[in-house]
Fold this protein.
Amino acid sequence: MGIIQHLAGRFVRQHGGRVRVPRIIEREVRNHARPGGATEREQRKAAAATAIVAAFFLGKSRFPQPELSTEDLPTVERIMEALKNLPGGMNKTHGGEAELIALAAREQKATGTRQVLLSNDGGASVVAARYQIPTRHAADVLAEFACADPGLSPTECTALFRSACEISAPPVVSRPADDSAFTCSHANGLCGPCDNAE
Ligand SMILES: [Zn+2]
């Protein structure tokens, strides 16, 4: 979302009151926001992270930050283990994802309020699903923007998504095949992104 400043602002307006961002994720984003990358991709990543820091973590827009307690640690351990056991999972640390899933699972169990994980990480989505937590990735969020704003064309969304994928991408199998993913079908009856946004 940081690829274009107005998308981060749009996200805050559309979902602001419902978003929770644990400290470990803020730390990861702030680390990415450090300037001085050698390649163009690194510089774009730093610029995107900087836009997210400004929109999500400064001033009034600061999202609530749920914290783990010692009772949550066995769940975090179990989730880390599960993430490591996925194909290709051995090579990653998974700290942020494990904490996110544990916090969402705890909240869902305690309050009965449906939780949704926002992540491009395919492994995290597999493990979150075991806790009855669905995942939305970058294209899903863009599709919700397109539903809310007819001025945002499917072609524009596709271009934004391609550009975002250079920095962080969902697994190839979950990416939309064409523009139709960003076309609201609410007027014709059912629309996935519209239903998800509720
Ligand atoms: Zn729609």
About this structure: The pocket of zinc ion is lined by residues 147, 184, 186, 191, 193-194 (CB under 6 Å). DSSP finds nine helices and two strands in the chain. Residues 83 and 127 are 7 Å apart (CA to CA).
